[in-house]
What does this fold into?
Amino acid sequence: MAWRILVFSLSQVLGLLLGWWYGGAWGAAVGGALAGWCWFAADLGRGLRVLRWFRHGDLDALPQPMHGLWGQALDRVRRLLRAQQLQIQERESQLDDIFAALQASPNGLVLLDSEGHIEWCNQIACAHFGFDAERDRMQLLGNLVRDPDFTAYLASKDYAHGVVLQGRSSTPSRPVRLSVHIYPHGQGRKLMLSRDITALEQAEAMRRDFVANVSHEIRTPLTVLTGFVETLQTLKLSPEENERYLALMAQQAMRMQNVVQGLLTLSRLEDSPWPGKGEWVSVQRLLEQCADEGRALSQLLTRNQPQHHTMVFPLPAPAEGLGEIAGIQSELLSALSNLVANAVRYTPASGSITVRWRWLDDGGAVFSVQDTGPGIDPKHVPRLTERFYRVDHSRSRETGGTGLGLSIVKHVLQRHDAVLEIDSKPGRGSTFSVHFPASRVRKPHNALAMPTPGAG
Ligand code: ADP
It folds into this structure.
C-alpha cells in the first residue's frame, strides 16, 4: 500500500514540476492531472492483466512479476491455487490407490449412479458380464445384463438377497455360475458385487453325490444282510441252507467293510503330510509284492475255471535291482497292486496280464499294466478315478470292488508327483501306465544301461 501511495505521489510531483517548468501555474495544474491519469491508466492495465489471469488461473502462465497491491494479491492467489492443486493431486492419488485396490479384488465390482448407469467397474466384473470398462462407462446396467432373473432382481428393488446367474462365458461343457448382490449406498447409488461360485457349486454337488453314493453303497448290502437275518429268524432252515445264508451274509458284511476301509484310506491320504524325497523304495520289492498279490487273486478268482491268467512280470530282476522310487512304500504298493488287481479282476481267465517297468530318456520311469480284458469305452475313461464310478457294476461287485480303487490310485500318484495314463479300447484290453518324474526315481547304482524288462 505504501509503495502504491509513494508511486502515486512521485508521479504527481513529477507532473507538477514538469507542468510548472513548461507553463507556470496552469502548466502545473495540467501536469498534475495528466500524471494522475497516467498513473490510473498504468494501474488499470496491471489490474486487467491480473483479472485476465484470474479467469483461467493457469499456474504455469503467471503474468510478469508485479509490485505493490496487485503483486501481493497475485502472490496470495497463486499460493492458494498451488495449495489447492497439491490437495487435489493428493486426493487423486488416494483415489487411484482405492481404485487399484478395488481392481485387485477377486470379486467383480460395479459402481452405479442413482439412475443405474455404470460409473466404474473392475476387470473381474468385465470378465463376468462381458463389459468394456471404457466403452460401457455411463451405460445403463439393465441394458447390458439381459438375464431375465437379473432384470427381475433389478426391478424388484429388494436387495436384501443376491441372485445367481449364468456367467457371460458360460457354455454347456464349462458352466460359469455367478452370485450377484446389489448394495445400495449414499443418495440412491449402488455397489454391485459379483462372485464366481462355479467351483463352490461343483464342490457342493460333489459333496451331495458323495453322501448319496456312500449311503447307497452301505444301504444295499445292509438291506440284503437284514433280509437274511430275518429269514434266519423266521424260517426253519436245513444246516446246508443255514451255511449258505451265513456265507452270503459274510460276503455282504465284507463288502461294507471294504467300502469303509476304502473311505478311511482316502481320508488318511488327504490328511497325511506330503511324502518327502528322503525315503527310497525298491522297485524290485514292489514288483515282487504286486506279483505275489496278483497271482494269489488270480488263483482265487479262477479256482473253479479250467483256465488261468497268464501273468508276466519283469522278474527275476538283474542283480543290481530295478532302481528305486522316492516315497512311501505302503502307498506305492497299494496304488501299483491296485492296478494289477483290477487287471486280474476284469480280465477273463483265458486272458493275459503284462506288467512292465521301463526307464525314459528324460530320467523318469513308467510302470504299466497291460491286460487283454474287455477294455473301456473312451467316454468312461476321464471319470474312472472319480469315487464310486464304475463301468461294469456287476463285475466290480462280484470281485469285491468298491469303486474307490482308482480314486485311491490317483491320490497316491498325485502325492508322488506321478501321473496315471489310461489307454483302452473296448474289446482290445487296457493299459494303465504310471509316469514317475526323474525327481522321484533313481536307477540302480551299478546300472550302465537298464535292460528292457523281460517275462517272468
Ligand atoms: P472297482 O472297485 O469297481 O474296480 P475302481 O476304481 O478300481 O473300482 O475302477 C473303476 C472302474 O473302472 C471299475 O468299476 C471298472 O469298471 C473299470 N476298470 C478298472 N480297471 C479296469 C480294467 N483293467 N479293465 C476294464 N475295466 C476296468
